[in-house]
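Exercise 3.2. Students should predict the tertiary structure of the chain below and write it as structure tokens, then compare their answer with the key that follows.

Predict this chain's 3D structure.
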Amino acid sequence: MLLSCGSFVPDGLFLHRNQTVQGTPMKPYALAAAVMLLPTLSSAHHGIANFDLNKDIAIEGTIADIAFVNPHSWIYVDVKNADGSVSQWKCELRGGTVLKRSGWSKEMFVTGSTIRITGSPDRFKENTCYMGTITLANGDSMNRYGQLVKAEKLARKPMTLQRLANGDPVISGDWAAEQVVMTDPRGQAGALLPISVVTTLDPGQLPEGARAFPGSRGTPESFTDDPLGTTWRRPSLRPLTEAGKQAVANFDGSSTDNPRLRCETTNILFDWTFDNPINRVEQTESTITLTYGLMSLVRTIHLDQSDFPANLAPSRGGYSIGHWDNDVLTVTTRGFLPGILSADTRTPHSGEFQVTERFRVDPAQSALVREYEAVDPLYFEGVHQGRDVLYVSDLPYETYNCDDRSFRSDLPD
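Answer key:
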């Protein structure tokens, strides 16, 4: 058995320099602007605080099983102990969808073959780790965020805008949110940023205007007595009303109070890009159907209606009416069940929640751009606004296959 563990002295961020990073450095002001335009990146990486990323651990054994599932994949390793007995470890990888987008496959992990894993230990479960680097029996070594194919965003080519017979722009197809990765390719330190930004940085580097990801190596959250609590409790997206404060008074975003930790849809804004999904759009002249790559939420946008039905049945996805104007699709959605706008920031929404989205195609970037604003006079003040971008996907949409095996998911292991 090979098993080692060491503590990290917090005198700076750990920088891993065994991987060459390609790309031309961005000018500081351009990089800062890119970082500031990424509001969704404040969302907590699922379960990162479960692991003590200030410690290093290494195991070696034989592969017992590999689960390519979402939100995170897991590899199971039989490790021989000093007394000859065998203990089974499980180590967390990225989600099955993003692993496939990065060129990984289940076939790479041959049952019974030797494997070495370095990473960080779980804070709460024995024989559980966060995978930083894997070395296979043939000597191939891959970091957590290793890209075995050229990232889609880096291989982007312009597209030609197509139109339906009535002149509406065609937005049907499979669209993927750009992968976000840690600047440390092993995922233990640094910031969580789009892959196109990370390729301009040194491993582990923090760009100007960005901070290390909460709970990652060397951050204040990682050294507290309650790392889960400090990682998940952040300022609300909007000032809450008294009713809004009451709605989340007992909410624990690191437990199954959080819809995504019980494998359920969060909302139509958050799920569109979180965990770098592949979404599918199907279009006719009268309807547009959006199938989300996260939790497989299905929405229908009605283009042939000017008003909402009198008696809406509330749902997590709401009821959407849209229209095209100068190649911009404006969609208004009402009829939501009360829920959570952002679990990471404890921001709720009520049944009075209303969302306006504007979709447009950017042919030069092969991109589908969405700008949105949301209001909820019952639970929060002002307007929550945001913007996100999807790109033509190299891989097709697939059902999410949610199988949460993380600590405090309260779901079967």
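Discussion points: The first strand starts at residue 2 and ends at 7. The helical segments are 28-36, 96-101, 195-198, 227-232, 242-247.
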